[in-house]
Structure formats: structure tokens, C-alpha cells
Amino acid sequence: MINNFALKKVIELRDFFHFALISVIGQGMGLLLPLLIAKLIDPREFASFSLALMVNLFFIALLISPTQAPFIIYSNEERLASGKINKTFSAQLIFFIGSLIIFSILSFLFKNQLAEFIGIRVNNLIYIFLAFVGLSLKTNIVTYFLAINKKKTSALFELIFNLFNILILFGLYILHVLDIETVFISYMLSALLLLVVYFFIIDRRSILPLHFEKEITLLFYHFTKWQVFGLSAAFFVNWGDNLALRIYSSFSDIATYNLAYQIFKGTITATYIIYSYFLTHISANINNPENISKYLNKKRPTLFFISLLLIGLSMIVLNKLIPLFYKNGYLQAPQILDILLIASIFATYTVFYIAIFNALKKYQFTQIVLIMQIVLNLGLDFLLVPHIGMYGAAIATVIGYVSVLIVYEWYFRRKIRPILNQ
Q: How far apart are CA 341 and CA 332, in angstroms?
């Protein structure tokens, strides 16, 4: 009886599992890239690479990622109404071009400060720019397929991009030119190759002719400006620990913490597979209490239980693999990772609410909570890191994720559930 029930649950979610499998493989490849770099260069250089990646992803969080959710939601609304997404796509194109211009201006104005923070020559900042362009292209391509409800294709393109990255990384290594600057070339080259594939698959009829409509562009802007605050805060949740570590710890500790955090970040990214898969469905059925109830009361328990098993298995396996793979380097990384993976449990449960909040356009609330999280996280970083080093940064991260779940649960029960039951 129990086996039949479990089999039924798996069958009901088989499309999600297909999507999740492709996503996990693709994101796993993306996670593998910095881990390979940590293996191929010394810890001091890996610390500089991590700081360079931090700078790059800050601009992605500030300028590119905020347009993803509005593009998916407004594309879905436009597609249901007219069968096309050319108006929303045109708005997205405006924001993309504007983002490249803003990044170019900011990186030029602060080039000396950026180079000093990272520990590279000013001339080599061109590699950071190329990585930004590559990551921006990839993000927009992947988001396009989510917007037209081709989830598996979206996940497949993420996989292809990261596969290109790994292959180019090995090419740089074989040519003996792999360092913290040239490694960023792989992001741009991978995006260009992905763009070639994209042009053969894209449904041009859905996006052409381009139609710049003021009303949609303003709606897009209003949604995006809130996303900027929240995703910038999310960036500091993921990378803000490095600010305290840069002041109070050595480059060796920064390298060790970032190795563990890269793996932890992979688990956080994996939780967003749930969000990416269900966002389109939730936004289309937000006024259908039966579908939302099925999502929360049937699909969520099954997926959360599976996630717990995977996190527990990861703790066991990674505690063996990290010392084996990295030998005498990064000795404290497994202990740091064990603490961080506790936060993954709370993050997994939280992610089920994010799709509902965004579908209801409660993005102001989600962004405010993210800002609260980073204030708490950074405050604890500067309180704990001077005394217990990178362990303090890991503990601060866990407390931040626990706090977010508590606030989300309260808000859902108090504010959202009555709306859904109307």
C-alpha cells in the first residue's frame, strides 16, 4: 500500500523530476567549474578568483537578475492573451542593453578600486567585463525558455552553457594559460556558442515584430526596481561574508570558506529548481485554490522530504571527498560545509513560498525580507568573524536563513492564505 502510494507520487511529479535531473546536472557542472579552479591553482590565487567572481556576480544581481521574474510573469500573461510575447521581450531588451551600458560606466569609474580589491592589474579587468556579458547573455537565454513554458529546454541550455565552460577551462589548462584572469574568458566564449544554438531554436514569431509599449515597460520597471533591492540583498547574503573575512581573516581562510560556500551555494541554487519549475504554473493558477492547495499540501511534502535525504547524503559523501580531492589544502572546508548545509534545509522549505508571493506580485515584501536578512547576516558576520573566524560567517548564514523562514511562514499564514481562500 505504501509502495503504491509512493509510486503514485513519483508518477505525478515525473515531469518535474525530468526537469530537475537536467537542472541538477547542468548546475552541477556550473558548480564544478570553481571547484576545478580551486584544484588547479593555489589557495591564494583561488581567494583572488573568488573575490573577482564576487564582483562579477554583484553586477549580475544588480543589473540582470532583477528582470527575470517580471519577464517570466508578464510574458506568461501576454502569451495567454495574444499568443505572443513581443511586447514583454522588447521591454526586456531595453533593460538588457541598458544594463551593459551601466556596467561599462561603473566598471570604468571604479576600475582602480576593483583591481585593488580583487588583486589583479587594471588592464585585466577586461576579462571581468567579458564574463559579465557572457553571464548576462546566458541568463536572458535561459529565462526566455522559462517565459514560454519550455522548462526542460531552459534547463538544457543551462547545462550546455556550463559544459562549454568546463571544456574551455580544460583547454586553457592544457595550453598553460589558466589563471584568475583568463578563466573568465570561458564565460564569454560559452555564451557565444550558446547564442548560436539559441538562434536555431528560438520561436521568432513570438517575439517579432519588436513592439515597445510604454505601459508594459513601466510595469516592467516597477517590478524590476523592487527586484534590484531584493536581489542585491540576496547577493550580499551569498557573498557578504567575504567582506568581514577580507578585513579580519587571511586569504587562506577566504579560500577555504569560499570552497565550502561554492558547494553550499550549489545546494541553494538547486532549491530554485523548484521555483523555476513551478513559477509559470503558479502564476497561471494563482486564483485556483485547488491547484495551490495541491502544490502546498501534496507536492511540497514529497519534494521537501527528498531534499532532506539529498542534503543528508551530501554531508556524508562530501566529508569524505573534500579531503581526498584537495589533499592537504582546505582542511577545514568540510566542517564549514556541514554548518552551511543546515541553512540549505531552511532555504528549501522557504523556496515554495517565493513562487506564490511573486505570482501575487508581493515582491515588495520578499525584497524587504531579503534586505532584513542581509542586515542580520552582515551584522552577525562583523560580530562573530573577529572572534571565531570563518565559523562565525557560517553560523551567521544559518541564522539568516532561519529568520527568513520564520517571517515567510508568519506572512503566509497571516496575509496570503486568506487571499488564496477567497
A: 15
